[in-house]
Design brief:
about 110 residues, mainly alpha, about 0% strand, BHLH domain-containing protein
Length: about 110
């Protein structure tokens, strides 16, 4: 009689020890971290030799600049809106005055 092979020996992949799984997970996380840092370096436009800490500082500086630009745009928008409101009110006053004068000249 032939011995029946166990199910673990028929699997297509070799058995990996728990410490091997940890190494695989660790290397996968390291690859993902490296890819993420590379993407961030590209987005910020800095040198590949910049350390992760320097990159984070550059990202924070970039975010602060974007917030400043956004705040300026919002301030400009508020000033623009108030100017537009004043312009509309002035036009309405002119329109009502010209309508008033037109009505007076018709009745005279």
């Amino acid at each position: 009689m032939k011995p029946v092979p166990s199910s673990s020996s028929t699997s297509s992949s070799p058995a990996v020890s728990p410490s091997g799984h940890r190494c695989l997970r660790k290397s996968k996380k390291q690859r993902q971290r490296k890819q993420t840092l590379d993407i961030l370096r590209e987005m910020i436009g800095c040198d590949k030799n910049v350390s992760a800490l320097e990159l984070i500082q550059l990202i924070m500086d970039h975010i602060n600049r974007l917030q400043d630009v956004l705040a300026e745009d919002n301030l400009d928008g508020v000033q623009s809106n108030s100017n537009n409101t004043e312009n509309v009110q002035a036009l309405l006053r002119q329109l009502s005055l010209s309508t008033y004068h037109a009505n007076i000249s018709k009745s005279a």
